Amino acid sequence: MALRWLERRGSKKNRDGMARYGIVAEKVFGVSMGSMQSLARKLGKDHKLAAALWRTGWYEARMLATMVDDPGRVTPAQMERWAKSFENWAVCDTATFVLFDRTPYAWAMVRSWAGRKEEFVKRAAFAMLASLTIHDKAAPDAPFILGLSLIEREAGDGRNYVKKSVNWALRSIGKRNLALHRRAVAVAKRLAKSADPTPRWIGKDALRELTSPAVARRLARKQR
Question: Which residues contact 80 (CB under 8 A, 6 or more apart)?
Fold first, then answer.
């Protein structure tokens, strides 16, 4: 039923728009994000439905699967299986931001995936690291400090979707609190001095945001 609902709402206009943003999939209806989110709210959490939707291979069904799955029932094996089949940044980022980072295995997967060869598995590590800066409010600084070491270690990967996620994670950690901000700025400065253009871009771009007045004000408010 959910698949038929998605199919009826697909359009060439949406498919063309997705392609312009680099969202490419083998099987795609062309359904807007708003429509998928609306359906997810109606369906509620359903682990079995999520598994069935994922198996269809349709882009929208997989997006919906990440939204309706129950993080309490997700296993490391499922996370690995889904990550290996990521086709694009949209499914990768949605899975990490709305599902995987809510599981007890999120930090272990960040460490495991950060050095992987597959582009979207590696992106998932750093997208999830960025997500954890927002959603894991109880985490101490230590895992984020480890995250900064992973960022510095992997900053030379020039693949577009990897380097952007590494940059995203660096900026996100630097905005979590003042102590992590100092550490993130130090990493960004080292990367900005690199002779390699990829880490140099990551460092310079992160510094632009992390040294901005807006971030300074945000961190000051957090300290009050």
Answer: none
Query: Is 183 part of any domain?
Result: yes
46 — alpha (psi -120 to 50), left (phi > 0) or beta?
A: beta
How far apart are alpha carbons 180 and 184 in whole angstroms? 6
Digit-coded pLDDT (tens) for 49-75:
999 999 999 999 999 999 999 999 999
**Integer Cα distance of 142 and 144 in angstroms:** 5
* pTM of the model as a whole: 0.94
- Segments forming the whole domain that contains residue 206: 89-224
The string of pLDDT tens digits covering residues 120-144 is 999 999 999 999 999 999 999 999 9
Number of domains in the chain: 2
- What is the domain-level CATH number for residue 139? 1.25.40
C-alpha to C-alpha distance for 102 and 76, rounded to whole angstroms: 12
Q: Where are the alpha helices (DSSP H) in 69-118?
A: 76-84, 89-98, 106-113
- Are both 54 and 163 inside the same structural domain? no
Question: Is residue 81 in a domain?
Answer: no
Contact of 172 with 194, CB cutoff 8 Å: no
